[in-house]
Amino acid sequence: MKIIEPSLLSINKEKALEQINQIRDFGLKLVHYDVMDGKFVPPTALKTEYLKDLELAGIKPNIHLMVSKPDEWIELYKNYKVNSITFHAESQSVEECKRLLAKIKSLGFLAGFAVKPHTDLNQYKELFALTDIILIMSVEPGWGGQGFIPDSLKNLEIANQAKQQHNNIIIEIDGGINFNYIKKLYNQIDWFVTGSWFFKNIDRMGQYLSEFKNLK
Ligand code: DX5
Ligand code: ZN
Predict the structure, then answer these.
(1) CA–centroid distance, residue 114 to ligand 1 (Å)
(2) pLDDT by residue (tens digit) across 169-209?
(3) What is the tally of structural domains in the chain?
(4) Residue 167 pLDDT > 90, yes or no?
(5) Which of 37, 54, 114, 138 could bridge to 59 as Cys pair (CB 3.0-4.6 Å)?
(6) Do the Cβ atoms of 110 and 83 come closer than 8 Å?
(7) Which domain does 65 fall in, by range?
(8) Pocket flag, ligand 1, residue 64 (CB < 6 Å)
(9) Ligand 2 centre from 145 Cα, in Å?
(10) What's the mean pLDDT in 144-152?
């Protein structure tokens, strides 16, 4: 199913609860939840903030771990109602990636791996049969509000080839996404993460979402 997934990195901290309720009222069931450790990427971001509020609103997070040691973070989420956890493939060996995917699945969550815009996704072919999600980064991880990097379209093409063989892979894109990219890339992507565009336009989102439902 195609979805728009608001990235809580861009939520207005003063109005967080109000905006979470707006997301709920739009009927959205999933949000994107960026975790940063200040090592894999320079900034730090969310850890467990808002998770209880999301639970109360009936919204599940897709956790995007931008951390250098994902293994040390996964269990932090085991008692929350989480939809998926995705880690960066670049953080460890392919063998270790396999183990992490299995560990996330054993917690009952969907499991995925992410690649940065200039990482060649072909290096991770062995993971295609094991993963639920491939997260294509279309900006360098670390910050919201950056411009879409066209080079990431190469990885998008590889992910779509993988999907031809492994039908149930979810393709998620993250970084610089606005409604123009959603329309342009609609057929190649399942989950569209959007941070700055979504929250800048949250008051007009009802209109955008009804347009989104009619896209083909
Ligand atoms: C960037 C994060 C993104 C970010 C996207 O490192 O992984 O999820 O919130 O924000 P926008 O949509 O503003 O590029
Ligand atoms: Zn993200």
Answers:
(1) 13
(2) 999 999 999 999 999 999 999 999 999 999 999 999 999 99
(3) 1
(4) no
(5) 54
(6) yes
(7) 3-213
(8) yes
(9) 11
(10) 97
Which among 143, 148, 192 is the best mutation to test ligand 1's pocket, defined by most ligand atoms within 8 Å of the CB? 143
Question: Is 9's C-beta closer than 6 angstroms to any atom of ligand 1?
Answer: yes
CB 100 within 8 A of CB 70: yes
Round to whole Å and give the CA distance between 91 and 200: 32
Q: Is the CB of 100 under 6 A from ligand 1?
A: no
Q: Average pLDDT for residues 88-107, to the nearest whole number?
A: 98
Which CATH number fits the domain that encloses residue 14?
A: 3.20.20.70
Pocket test for ligand 1, best of 7, 33, 50 (most atoms within 8 A of CB): 7
Task: Please state, in angstroms and rounded to a whole number, the distance separating the CA atoms of residues 97 and 88.
Answer: 9
Residue 47: count of CB within 10 angstroms of its CB:
13
